[in-house]
Amino acid sequence: MSAPHHGLPRLLAGLEPGGAPMSLAGHTHIHGPLPYIAPDQLIEEVGRSGLRGRGGADFPTARKLRAVAVRRRVGPVLVNGSETEPASAKDRLLLARLPHLVLDGAVLAAGAVGASEVIVKVGEGAADALDALRGAVSVRDGDRVRISVLAGPEGYVTGEESAVVHFLNGGPAKPTFVPPRPFERGIRGRPTLIQNPETLAQLALVARFGSSWYRELGTLADPGSALVTITGSVRHPGVYELAFGTPMSDLLDAAGGPVEPLQALLVGGYFGTWVDASNAVGLRLAREDLRSVGCSLGSGVLIALGESACGVHESARVISYLASQSAGQCGPCLYGLRAIADSFGALADGVAEPRERDRLLRWCADVRGRGACHHPDGAVRFVESALRVFARDLEGHPRGRCDALPAGLPLGDSAVQPPGSANRRTRALAR
Amino acid sequence: MSATLRINPIACEAHGLCVELLPELIRLDDWGYPILDESEVPSDLIGLARRAVDACPTLALLLDDDRD
């Protein structure tokens, strides 16, 4: 066992800017070989570490492992590398540059739950991640599980757990009506553990160095480090590894600091929440702090909105994008989000009916919780936070034009994407 | 004994029979899809709830008997 490294970086140790995927030799040199740990012992250790899922749901990883481990005829472990949140780049960074760390975690998790197979699912556009993973799988030996790498369709809801399972079972990449949940009946009808790549990378380090080491960073409630994609009005947008408990201002400084005074931060990506910059300054990267202003870290995205931009227009673009990304299966999501996007757009363009805002709030309340997946819930959370944080700007919009500059928030490959913003994803670099 | 109603939103095609048969528990949103404000079914409405479930042309309305 190699000596544990103290401080940061942990996951991103040894990563060089702009480089190729880390070799197995390089990976083993930095972190040591893959340890063997008995299943129960690994789950216990993960439980003591306090590790939670990094795909957005914050679910305690040990509980998820145990829920599958107690079942019979367990199916493959699914590494959900879809990362369909357009502003997020952390999972792709891990898969494309540190594939062995993620695969170590997947192999360990498979051992812990009694799975004999690992499937890594990545969006078909992430060619670098697919190449790195296939290369990594071909040089590994000694894994007691079969590992396969699969490319799947892209689109906001295709990364949702049940949508990935549906796709791998031969159906369209669209969410299904749950229960049964994947840990009950997943791939090929078998109990399936689904984990985010970062969660597995963290697990690979907990397995090597233990829960006490893991807790050397972070807070009591949120131990360890996290990958955060910091973008928007910062000097060096990219993926950064930071300890939980880090103040928001230090997060922004990690990305080179703001390029102009900020008016708001979008915390948690497009399923996330706008927070007024003055409220955000005092926050730390911790669930408790984020909850106090009604948000969560989600998939680890932080978008800074500068004062020269218009939060109303930017939000209108995002809402329109989210509406376009409905899988189109559930009426309240398909029609409700479209109506909400049009209504918000009317407010932004100053052509809204009187009481438009009241109707919009009623629609948000009506749509919440009424999809098979949480797509509509995330979208209305975003809308409600936009109405709250940009309330004053919204009042001004009907009376006159808004001459703010477009901030060009990244919106994936959808039609509403402005030219030039596509390279934000690929610019992600560890610094 | 208690029972709860659920809607499978993928199966639901907004035929609206449920709201005709069970307006006490179901209302329609602005797009014609049913909203369950309260999923718990009071015992005096269980008969009507069963009728609404049976009437749904897409089998999208589900009644879970906690007894089962």
Kindly estimate the percentage of residues of chain B that lie in beta strands according to DSSP.
25-35%
| Fraction of residues in helix of chain B | 10-25%
Question: Assembly type of the shown chains?
Answer: heterodimer
Total separate domains of chain B: 1
**Gross geometry of chain B:** globular
Largest sheet of chain A: 5 strands, mixed
Q: Tell me, what is the CATH class of chain B?
A: Alpha Beta
Major interchain interface with per-chain residue totals: A-B, 17 and 14 residues
Task: Give helix and strand order of chain A, one letter per element, not per position.
Answer: HHHEHHEHEHEHEEHEEHHEHHHHHH
What's the rounded overall pLDDT mean of chain B? 93
- Binned strand content of chain A: 5-15%
Q: Give a quick account of the main beta sheet of chain B: strands, pairing sense, barrel closure.
A: 3 strands, antiparallel
Characterize the structure shown.
The complex is a heterodimer of chains A (431) and B (68). With 431 residues, chain A is an alpha/beta fold. Chain A is built from 17 helices and 9 strands. In chain A, strand 5 and strand 6 form a beta hairpin. Chain A is globular and about 65 Å long. Mean pLDDT of chain A is 91; it is low at 413-431. Chain B has 68 residues and is of the alpha+beta class. Chain B has one domain (3-65): 2-Layer Sandwich (Alpha-Beta Plaits), CATH 3.30.70.20. Chain B is built from 2 helices and 5 strands; from the N terminus they run βαβββαβ. In chain B, strand 2 (26-28) and strand 3 form a beta hairpin. At the A-B interface, helix 13 and helix 14 of A face loops of B.
